[in-house]
Amino acid sequence: MDTTTVIESLALEMLGVTPDRLRAARTLDEAGIDSLGAIDLVFAIESHLGVLIDADALGAVHSLQDLVDAIER
Amino acid sequence: MNAFMARLAIAALSATLDLAGLLPAVLHPGKRVNHALRDVRDASRGRWLERRVIESRWQSFVLQQYVLGLDESEMRVFFEERVRYEGSTWPLDERRPLILAAPHYGASGVGFLAAVHRMHRRRPINLFIDAGIPTRQLTALFEVAGLDLSRLMSGFAGSVEAARALRRGECLIMMPDVFSHGCQTLVVPFFGRLMRVAAATAFLALRTGAIVVPVFATPGANLTLRVLVDTPIDARRFAGDDDQQKIFMLTQALFARFESVFRFAPEHWHGWERLPGSSTPVDPAYRLDYDEPLRVLRAKCEALPHLVQEIPELDLIRKEHVWIRPR
């Protein structure tokens, strides 16, 4: 499963945000993921993928693509 | 600033407090606090409060300048001989993740240094703030405390780092009584009003099982510091599946502790002036003549921005009075 699909499935499972809504939104906030929900999502992604996302990279995350880039960096 | 100059500065204010009373409100924080409290139910106000506010702020400022000028050995002596801890200090020795919830009260900067001195040898200590850029004062405090600036966390990335630090069993200092406008907030009762506060403290405590310990640091007259370590709030007590409810209950419990301390010694809190703008009365307005209803509505829109999100037309009233002519 690629990174985008993992994020979409976790966002749906944990926060009830559908993949369509996540892809269509310009920012995570617009998709209905508030800052606290985003923290939960980051930890779930790290646990699922066995990675540790760099803190500096997280500072630039605003959208789904930014999150994918931060994970794959 | 050396000890002699610091004591002289404090004595000079005490001698000129009556003259300070002639200053206009823009230069006199005590008058601004007195004015802000006029809408707070059961608030004790008066000249005595004006004097105590200006005394507290001046003593806190002088104490901080004095401590920032000490070298390492002098600072060790200061924290060992001039800092008095009161209350339940056992949480400071706990091994569980620990959040020190320190409002902007009294000499909070020196309190931060006292916490570092007390705990840093046992476990790392971090500071989370909502503001994006650390102030010069904060940077100076970190330098004096011998802490790496990477332990100063803010924003979204900082929230993740703060949670990671807590999961490692470290200590995190947070200041729950201020927040930036972009962060997640909720409304809790505070001094008979509904006040908007940040959700981050409760959220991080619940996610990491941390103990939340309210801490208050107040200056003494003779370059001393009193650190009150209040009754801890254990996040594990808040059971159930409703996350929003748990965040609310923990935040409400925290601000109830703040309120009880602020009622006892209101002069030390730095947040009185912004209270009217970040809160709304619980009781409905008792006087509804002239344009009072619009003023009340404007105050509620400013304190509860989600109202404006749900009813955008309210934004017209929030920005200016709009008189709508009847058809």
Structure description:
The complex is a heterodimer of chains A (73) and B (327). By secondary structure, chain A is mostly helical. In chain A, helix 1 packs across helix 3. Chain A starts with a helix and ends with a helix. In chain B, the strands form two sheets. In chain B, strands 1, 2, 3, 4, 5, 8, 9 and 10 form an eight-stranded mixed β-sheet that branches. Chain B has a three-stranded antiparallel β-sheet with strand order 6-7-11. The longest helix of chain B is centred in the N-terminal third of the chain and has 22 residues. In chain B, strand 3, helix 7 and strand 4 form a beta-alpha-beta unit. In chain B, helix 1 runs antiparallel to helix 4 and helix 6 packs parallel to helix 7. Chain B is globular, with a radius of gyration of 21 Å. With 327 residues, chain B is an alpha/beta fold. Chains A and B meet through helix 3 and helix 4 of A and helix 8 and helix 9 of B.
Report how far the terminal alpha carbons of chain A are from each other: 17 Å
What is the overall pLDDT average of chain B? Answer: 83
Low-confidence stretches of chain A: none
Give a short account of the largest sheet of chain B.
8 strands, mixed
Beta content of chain A comes to under 5%
List the helices and strands and how they pair.
The complex is a heterodimer of chains A (73) and B (327).
Chain A: H1 3-15, H2 19-24, H3 35-49, H4 55-58, H5 64-72
Chain B: H1 3-15, H2 17-20, H3 29-36, H4 47-68, H5 72-81, E1 83-87, E2 98-101, H6 108-119, E3 125-129, H7 136-145, E4 152-154, H8 155-167, E5 171-174, E6 185-190, E7 193-198, H9 200-208, E8 211-219, E9 225-229, E10 233-234, H10 243-264, H11 275-278, E11 279-281, H12 292-303, H13 305-310, H14 314-319
Parallel strand pairs in B: 1-9, 2-5, 2-8, 3-4, 3-5
Antiparallel strand pairs in B: 6-7, 7-11, 8-9, 8-10
Helix pairs in contact in B: 1-4, 3-4, 6-7, 8-9, 9-10
